[in-house]
Amino acid sequence: MIRVELLLAAQGDAILIEYGKKKNSLHRVLIDGGIKGSYVHLKKRLMQIPKEQRVFDLLVITHIDADHIGGIIELLKDESLEITFKDIWFNGFKHLSSKKVRGVLQGELVSKYLMQKKLPWNKLFKGKAVRVRGRRFKPVVLDGGMEIILLSPTKKALEKLFPFWEKEIQKLQEKLQKPLVLAPKPPLKSKKIDIQKLIQIPYEKDDSLTNQSSIAFLASYEGKTMLFGGDATQEILLESIKKYRPKCQALYLDLFKVPHHGSCNNISKKLLDRIKCGRYLISTNGAIYNHPDASAIAKIIKYGGYKSDIYFNYKTAQTAIWAKKSLQKKYSYRAHYPKNEDEGIVITL
Ligand SMILES: [Zn+2]
Q1: Class of domain 2-348
Q2: pLDDT for residue 23
């Protein structure tokens, strides 16, 4: 059994994966923690797990953007949860370059907590960077038997971030100090959806250095394979997929957490043509960036396979436009939304 839950994380990601054979001995992985303000939701959910089971196989902190790391900083500070992680994957400053780096930069809270609390840090990589290693796609096997294959970041992407790390950490600090943003922007004027027109919008690549440094990976268990895209770029994902599945073999997936909250800069026909998948997951409440972009969803509908399911963890102005029954019928897809406003969405495989 695999259960994937896109928790309420405002404009960010907080993903809980539970897997295992027995209900009372499940294995767990957490990917990211959403924004600082959405930590309440993450905490509420983690508290529902019986205390004796709060031993996670893995915590993945994909990259240093506030919508992924804000809730993680709160989680690492919070002693009341009594949660432990067998390993924590996070690429800090020391992992970006082979140049020797001393200590932790001021404001780099995650590295500080990991060191102060002596938490396991990239243990399954012998303390080294969590990244793609050439053409070797050797799986990392978690205790419960889940196999993980990294698709992003590459060595090159981490090195590119190295000279800008301090600046990015400063940006992060400013964002973390801003008032909490939980509510999505006011609804957009309802637009008529024209999928044929939307798919014509040209793809423009994501140049963000922090997104290029995002961890993205394949996770397989009991014959099911999932791709958790973090905020990774299409270029890096494609580069890895081509090496992992050469000779144009399609990459078969049971679930794809679409990168960067369904931004039109991170997914296009080129990537969708390379994978075969029936379930697409979008995590965002649309705040600040108005994600997901309509053209990205249109391309998923058009090129993402016949009768695919699209799961949104918020029903917002940007996501509700895909609920129209006539549109779902015409283009053979199904849109899914949370049953209640105070919970995310669950996908069971
Ligand atoms: Zn993000």
Answers
A1: alpha beta
A2: 82
